[in-house]
């Protein structure tokens, strides 16, 4: 839970092709957000943790998290 929001998995765990680029401290959170359907990665089975998110990607993530917490 984060700020009293229970994150429930609805998708199976995934191993992104570029998982080794994800920092250790962030991996569990990214996996939880993916399983809850809140973060999707880039669509080619990668997460691109070193890439810069576009405004559109950030807006989609914020919208998903905002709607999930309602």
What distinguishing features does this structure have?
about 0% strand, about 70 residues, mainly alpha
What percent strand? under 5%
Radius of gyration: 12 Å
Helix % is 25-40%
Main pleated sheet: none
Number of strands: 0
Distance between the termini: 14 Å
Q: Please state the structural category.
A: mainly alpha
Average pLDDT, all residues: 89
Overview of the molecule:
By secondary structure, the chain is mainly α. It contains 2 helices and no strands. The two termini are 14 Å apart.
Q: What is the element layout, followed by pairings?
A:
Layout: H1 24-35, H2 55-68
Quickly describe the structure.
The relative contact order is 0.19.
């Amino acid at each position: 839970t984060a700020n009293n929001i229970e994150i429930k998995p609805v998708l199976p765990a995934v191993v992104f092709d570029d998982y080794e680029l994800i920092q250790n401290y962030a991996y569990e959170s990214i996996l939880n957000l993916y399983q809850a359907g809140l973060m999707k990665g880039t669509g080619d089975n990668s997460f691109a943790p070193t890439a810069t998110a576009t405004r559109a990607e950030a807006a989609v993530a914020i919208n998903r998290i905002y709607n999930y917490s309602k």
